[in-house]
Design a protein that fits this description.
328 residues
């Protein structure tokens, strides 16, 4: 540990997507990140989550979407038409921009309130789509049980990193929409962020337009990046267990300091990053998973993606980036 001379700076952790719909497994994150910042959280407890935005006061979506028939355009295609009207750019140029070949995607003079309203509408539409797919999957499951059919195993989309593959019920990966959604996230939240900060992607909230697929696309293009993963115990404070709760708080502080050191080293030195990774590995194995907690207990999967110091990196993807998902 003496080699780790770099004292990590305090770091903000900011949640993706922009609008988060509360899930029970989020409760387990409080011991690791007691103050997660997010754009807007719906149904979240008052403690532990810091919402940076309020629901938008205007809904610009209806102002231009009314010119299209239902189902005529996908959400991001409608956005392209909107930007074309605002900037006199043709749709082909804007599609190229979203795919990362032309920058910037968003015009600099776009009103921020209108931008947040547009982004909010996009998030609500994606949430409604995901909920609809989940209802359809549940109905098909019930129908299969009534007909006496054997329950099929969950299918997964390949090729994707084996650590996490989205079920087919969420829809196929949408790379252009992932770029657009990430651009919205950055543009809307950038005035609220202070360096150093790190994006925390909550899966499966991100769905088929998760930033994960941008890393996958980078890998397919031959770009090399750094990644690591850990399985963390799903802690929760226990009523009446003061000693255990104090231990959890102390371990949480140590975990955040070690994680911050690793994230800071990832943009400075490959050698220091390797040392911090080893330290975090020991912390997880020796302290976070004590003998009293069974290995099969419900847990949270933590993954880190980043560009190695000195390697070419994509400016469109903020790095390093954390991915959190429930792991049973």
């Amino acid at each position: 540990m003496s080699a780790l001379v770099m004292e990590p700076l305090p770091r903000q952790y900011v949640v993706f997507p922009l609008v988060v719909h509360w899930q029970p497994w989020f409760d387990h994150l409080s011991c690791y990140w007691p103050e997660l910042r997010c754009g807007l959280a719906t149904g979240a407890p008052k403690a532990g989550w810091v919402s940076l935005l309020r629901p938008p006061r205007q809904q610009v979506w209806q102002a231009f979407a009314k010119h299209f028939q239902p189902g005529e355009l996908s959400q991001w295609q409608a956005y392209l038409h909107y930007l074309a009207a605002e900037t006199d750019q043709d749709e082909q140029d804007l599609q190229a921009a979203i795919r990362g070949t032309v920058a910037p995607v968003l015009p600099p003079q776009l009103d921020r309130e209108a931008l947040w309203s547009l982004a909010h509408q996009l998030e609500e539409t994606l949430a409604e789509k995901a909920a609809g797919l989940q209802r359809l999957a549940a109905q098909e499951k019930v129908l299969g049980q009534l007909l006496g059919e054997a329950e099929p195993e969950d299918l997964e989309i390949l090729p994707v990193d084996a650590a996490w593959s989205p079920p087919l019920s969420l829809g196929p990966p949408d790379i252009p929409l992932a770029r657009l959604r990430l651009q919205f996230w950055q543009e809307v939240l950038s005035p609220h962020l202070a360096e150093p900060w790190t994006m925390v992607v909550l899966e499966p909230e991100a769905g088929e337009s998760s930033p994960r697929f941008l890393w996958q696309a980078a890998q397919d293009d031959g770009q090399e990046f750094w990644q690591a993963r850990w399985r963390l115990p799903a802690w929760q404070p226990q009523p009446g267990s003061v000693e255990q709760n104090v231990e959890l708080l102390e371990l949480g502080v140590l975990f955040r300091k070690t994680l911050a050191g690793l994230l800071q080293a990832l943009v400075a030195s490959a050698g220091e990053a390797a040392q911090w990774r080893e330290t975090l590995q020991r912390l997880v194995e020796e302290r976070l998973w004590p003998a009293s907690i069974p290995r099969q207990a419900s847990a949270v999967r933590l993954e880190i993606y980043g560009w190695l110091p000195g390697s070419p990196m994509s400016p469109a993807v903020p790095a390093p980036m954390l991915f959190l998902s429930p792991a049973d």
